[in-house]
Amino acid sequence: MPISQIAKSTGLAWNTIKNRIDHLEKNGILREPYPILKYEVLELERHHVTVSLNNSTVLSVLEESLNDYPYIRYRARFHGDEGFGLYLQFDIPKGTEHHLESYLGLLLVKGVIDDYQRYVELGPRYETRLNFSQYNFENQQWKFSWKEWLDRMDEQEVQSLEYESPKSLLGKIEPIHFEVLQLLFEDARTSQKQISERLQIPMGQAHRHYRFVMEKLVKNVRLYYDTTYFDLTSTYMAIIKAEGMAEKVFNNYVKGGPPFSTSLSLLQNDKVLLWGSFSPQQGIDAIFSLWEKFSDVKVYLLDTTDRGSFSYDFYPPNFDFDKRWWKVDRYYMVEEPFLLLDQRMEGF
Questions:
Q1: Which H helix or E strand runs over 121?
Q2: In CATH, what number is assigned to the domain containing residue 98?
Q3: Which contacts qualify for 194-202: CB closer than 8 Å, 24 or more apart?
Q4: Which of 58, 39, 19, 74 is nearest to 302 (CA)?
Q5: Is residue 185 situated within a structural domain?
Q6: Among 63, 85, 100, 168, which residue carries the largest CB count within 10 Å?
Q7: How confident is the model at residue 256 (pLDDT cuts 50, 70, 90)?
Q8: Range of the domain at 129
Q9: pLDDT tens, 131-178?
Q10: 44 inside domain
Q11: CA 54, 56, 59 angle in degrees (round to 5)?
């Protein structure tokens, strides 16, 4: 949100807002914003993978090797139901899950990982944002009950979730769009003037391409902040087998989810993925409430520190503009990244 818009909605002067934002950034409370890609319009599918490790000595090698995988989006260390391991997020071209499965299978055969689970996101996904009207600044506690939230779900009628997959924009994509997108992944605050200078194009073109990318390819810009400031110190991910109630869980979440940053996604096979940064008490309440409600809930405590996690920028070389499609051959998605891993594994 531009400073001018914040000033208008709060009634404060532009300079006042700017000074306060600078103060928050200087003290590390606010961090660089990050664009969230509309991967569906690029005909990509999101796959969530948990890999368990029986040998912590290969962790750093595996993490470095994952940097070579062309379609990885995010990784984070975890402790959970499957012991110790990594949570991985991939955005892969449609129709290529057999390549991802082959790559993970090779990791298993090689003995790099002990086991893995893969979950495919269906598309419907919803995120909640900080709502400070539900935060008690005196005792620093959030006003939200997971048990009450789940109880409200029982009172609602089952409603079919209508979701229409976004239309593909691959036919309209130009190389310059990916270049702009890459600059925004480096810093979402990059201005149109800076884009003009960095890409050496006229301001009119910079404005047009920036607008296309922000309106068509970027879902939103996520603001990163110091979660400890609001006691949101524990990041959990839960995979819930919803037992025929996945759509009901999703609708209940949209109508009144928690007042802090979380996300909920529908997965294949009647599963739901819940992710968020919780206060210690909220995390405990959420886990036990979910366990009471559902018979199959896998919970992971994620290490989202700079040392334990990494977000990958958009990688334009994955796309072949001559073929107007992603690079999807087996060598590119399986053999080459595994070969690089094998080289790193020498000596282990």
A1: strand 115-128
A2: 3.30.70.920
A3: 201/176
A4: 74
A5: no
A6: 85
A7: confident
A8: 124-163+225-303
A9: 878 888 888 788 889 999 988 887 766 566 666 778 999 999 999 999
A10: yes
A11: 110
